[in-house]
TrEMBL record:
<dbReference type="InterPro" id="IPR037401">
    <property type="entry name" value="SnoaL-like"/>
</dbReference>
<protein>
    <recommendedName>
        <fullName>SnoaL-like domain-containing protein</fullName>
    </recommendedName>
</protein>
<dbReference type="InterPro" id="IPR032710">
    <property type="entry name" value="NTF2-like_dom_sf"/>
</dbReference>
<feature type="domain" description="SnoaL-like">
    <location>
        <begin position="9"/>
        <end position="100"/>
    </location>
</feature>
<dbReference type="Pfam" id="PF12680">
    <property type="entry name" value="SnoaL_2"/>
</dbReference>
Amino acid sequence: MDALQVALAYHRAWAARDLDAAMAFIADDVVLDAPAGRVEGAAGYRAFLTPYLDMLVGAEVLAAYGDADRAVVVYDSATKPVASAPAAEYVTVRDGKITYSRFIFDRLPFHLARQA
């Protein structure tokens, strides 16, 4: 599978709230850069993803692009606190596993939901 296929398969897995299936696409030495900071290693990645999946209602891919080694998926998530949470994830892939992820989303709607 090329990077785009891996990124989309990973997205389908977490969008279905299947943590184990999603983690099957994550390299042991993965590095994640997210608005809250850097996460290193598969265990840390799992700990990062778990609370998000707990509040996830659904996700729709808006666009996806990639080549052999890199991909970006733009999507809109529905979560329990926020009805529309657009985001983008850029990934690099080696041997069918995501080795790097840059996760970008707007934190303000979540902040406002916590204050309500």
